[in-house]
Amino acid sequence: MEELIARAAELRVAGEKWQTVAAEVGRSVLTVTGWPKKHPELWKKHYARAVTEQMKDASSEAMHTLRKLMRSPHEEVQQLAAQKILQLREARERAAQQKGKPAGSSVPEVRQLVDYLEGMTHEQFYDSFGLDPPAAVGGAAEPIDRDPPRPRLAE
């Protein structure tokens, strides 16, 4: 029974309708819709576990996307992706410290690097890496004083 409830919770967390859940576990819709009330502790346990697993998967996919953005031909996109990865790492380390776990590296050093990168102008960024600013369409250099395009990323 617990395995059926666990599978039903996984399917619901994934957004499946009760009809699909019922078909998947071989029970009636009335039966599976009653499990959260009939077995509240089991349901909560398995539903929470399924949410955690889904969030881990989404986090992995988000990191994969950020790593792909770091390979962008546009230096601005690379810089923003690197900054976001550093910010995520900092947040993870801060959370670990709050739980009393040792952090993997110094949070202040990561914050200092993020602040430094965020404070750079385009000209400073390109100069620091010995790069020429990208040319806009038509061969003209892109203005330095405007913000670079920002990828749509979750906060």
Structure notes:
This protein has helices at residues 2-13, 18-25, 29-38, 40-69, 75-98, 107-119, 122-128. It is mostly helical. The protein folds into 2 domains: 1-60, no CATH class; 70-155, no CATH class. α1 crosses α4, α2 packs across α3 and α3 packs across α4 (40-69).
What descriptive keywords fit this protein?
mainly alpha; 2 domains; 67% helix
Taking pLDDT < 50 over at least 5 consecutive residues as the criterion, the unreliable ranges are: 136-147, 150-155
> What is the alpha-carbon Rg in Å?
23 Å
Number of strands: 0
Shape: elongated
| Total domains | 2
Strand content: under 5%
Tell me the series of helices and strands, N- to C-terminal. Answer: HHHHHHH
| Largest β-sheet summary | none
How helix-rich are the residues, as a percent range? 55-70%
What is the residue-mean pLDDT, rounded to a whole number? 79
Structural class: mainly alpha
Distance between the termini: 39 Å
Number of helices: 7
Outline the secondary-structure elements.
Layout: H1 2-13, H2 18-25, H3 29-38, H4 40-69, H5 75-98, H6 107-119, H7 122-128
Write a brief structural summary.
This protein is an all-alpha fold and 155 residues long.
